[in-house]
Specification:
Elements: H1 2-10, H2 25-79, E1 81-82, E2 95-99, E3 105-111, H3 116-119, E4 126-131, E5 136-138, E6 144-154, H4 159-163, E7 173-182, E8 192-200
Antiparallel strand pairs: 1-2, 2-3, 3-4, 4-5, 6-7, 7-8
């Protein structure tokens, strides 16, 4: 009995030490640094992707709107005749007047800034189409600024009148130079587009 009492008094309860120790201060600093570097890289990639996406949307929008306006003018020129009497002297000109097969008058003009009633906003320029029935409307949306619209008409005088004098002339043709820029509050949303084409009228007079 005394033996068990003696050994019971000498027994000490020990908690087994865990194999996993806590992080040291240096390890925590290193881990935090790696986390910050990874977070910065991920944020930079996201911002760059966002800017690229905005720019792509801007280019797509300006391309769609500008090409629609160009195609509309090309179609009217091809199917109509140039009204030389209404063309302002000098080349290039910002105004073009056409006469359709059924005798209707269509004109295109470049309206500069500070005309919000027509362009939809005071700070932009636009292309305006006018009809002889009094309708006058902008062909370009208010999110696009038309920086340039030039019409180069050849020959400078009505070739069908010149042909009556026995002179050799060609079919009237018009070269359109069209430059636009998107309007955006951020630089990545802004983009420019330049278009140019030459089209001949298909109406022949003999």
């Amino acid at each position: 009995m005394g033996y068990f009492k003696k050994n019971a008094m000498s027994f000490k309860f020990q908690v087994p030490r865990s194999k996993f120790q806590g992080f040291t201060l240096i390890e925590m600093v290193v881990a935090l640094g790696i986390f910050l570097v990874a977070s910065t890289a991920a944020t930079s990639i996201f911002v760059s992707a966002n800017k690229a996406s905005r720019r792509t949307v801007g280019i797509t929008r300006i391309g769609s709107d500008a090409r629609w306006a160009m195609e509309k003018m090309v179609e009217d020129i091809r199917l109509g005749t140039v009204d030389y009497a209404a063309i302002i002297s000098g080349t290039p000109t910002n105004f073009l007047s056409l006469r359709t097969i059924d005798g209707q008058m269509i004109s295109y003009s470049w309206v500069r800034q500070n005309n919000s009633d027509v362009c939809g906003a005071a700070a932009i320029s636009c292309i305006v189409v006018s009809y002889n029935n009094g309708i006058r409307a902008s062909m370009t949306p208010k999110g696009i600024d038309v920086r340039r619209l030039d019409f180069y008409v050849w020959p400078p005088k009505d070739p069908f009148v010149l042909a009556g004098d026995g002179r050799t002339v060609g079919q009237p043709r018009v070269t359109i130079v069209f430059e636009t820029e998107t309007i955006g509050s951020k630089k990545e949303e802004q983009s420019r587009l330049s278009l140019q084409t030459t089209v001949s009228t298909r109406v022949y007079k003999r």
